[in-house]
# Entry
Amino acid sequence: MRASSLRARPGSVDDAQPLLDRAEQADGNSPVSDQALLSAVQEQRELRVFTRVGDAEPLAVGIVGQGELDLVVDPPVRGNGVGTEALRILLDSPAAREPAPGGSTGPLAWAHGENPAATALLRGAGFEPVRSLYRMALDPARLPADEIDPFAVELPSGFVLRTFDATPNATGDAHPADAHAWVHVNSRAFASHPEQGRVSLEDFALMRAEPWFDPEDLFLVATADTNHTAGFTWVKTLRGEDGLVETELYVIGVDPDFAGTGLGKALLKVTLTRMAHHTPKRITLYVDGDNTRAVGMYEGAGFTIDSRSTQWRGPQVSE
# Structure
């Protein structure tokens, strides 16, 4: 395929989903992050569908903006130069010149899982590795067998557990009180995290609109005396058409004011007991590779590293 035969058109997540599904099935990893998809839905990032000139069949999908880019090439057409040309087109777009998180220059891109082709593509475009992300997995046989009630988990003294209350505020605010509490704690717990710490009330509302969301899978822990939310844990439960269930520790966080109280380990146990309720065939979580404290906590619960993803920073895009 000649480079000039590729074109990009604006698209939607719905347009891109079939190709993204094929890529995930072929690669064994989600090809783009949830944050990238949320930003595309909110039109904070541009989604582009790449096709041949004169042909509407998608060959690749790109998402670019907010200092980041994602590129997914349809598995059947890989190795034909599509990725190289699509990446060039993305880097030439005005959205690629937006500053990366933290104000640093040069767009960020993920190579999900062990992906030699993506690594070669990014290196060839002048990108350098800057961050690692682990996917960790747990043998379902390691789930608690005799303690299936999350509310039976012993918490540190002075804390109580509840599930997320989706009831809208009585004041006319469209967001539930628990939504405000979750976003506040999440922003504090992940203040230095380039993606998780930026989740807004609107992002959180879109996440709760996903078909997999279940408020019974989202737990908040609060102080018993003041009802001040101190932490949370969230289980993402996916049910396949074949009836198989997969659970992911979507995110777990503790307000820094309550660090060192033992809430993290208690919330992890809450997570595992809730997962046991779903009888999953697969259990995963994602954690930054340099977060040695969290990695150690998960390894202590029996998780092992299943795959490694790498984030790359590209050269500064000229005006």
About this structure: The first strand starts at residue 6 and ends at 10.
